[in-house]
Amino acid sequence: MLMMNLHTLVALIPLVASLPSMPSFGNKIKSLSSRDDQCPFPESYKITSLQVWTPKNNNTHPIVVDFQYADNETKIETSCYYNGTQPNAGPEGLAPRYACENPTVQFQWVQKTSMLSIIELACPNTAESGFMALDQFTPRLSCVDTSNTTAFGEGSQCFSLDFAILRNFTALDPIAPPGGN
Description:
181 residues, alpha+beta, six-stranded antiparallel beta sheet, five-stranded antiparallel beta sheet, 11 strands, 15% helix, globular, AA1-like domain-containing protein
């Protein structure tokens, strides 16, 4: 049986080699960027100083998320912060996302999975070339409990174990027009 499967795999090699290759995400970004030097498309980014605080034991204070964001390609450096008072910057009907100080950068924090999603709008003011670069990941965190005597009360204060989190965007989607049309 093993020999038959091996022969089958070997027979498939010419077929697989003849298939057209999918362009990598980086190549897609580079081809789009080369069309418009005035509007570079994001390819990678860096997050520093990531902190997340979550409430415990009937504490009603909302989750707090705080980090610094930088993208060398688009020259964006901004602070990102959520404490329960920021409005949803995303389309209605989808999971809420929050704008950073530079609203071209948005994020989502999913507490249940400790996942951070990053969205950077690329050329958002041009309908024919506006895109969203997307990525999501679960950062490595170290957490300590906080008491009622701290600023937010009883909860868990988490810090990134990585001084700098360097990531590549993994998807590029068109920006939906206002109203979903």
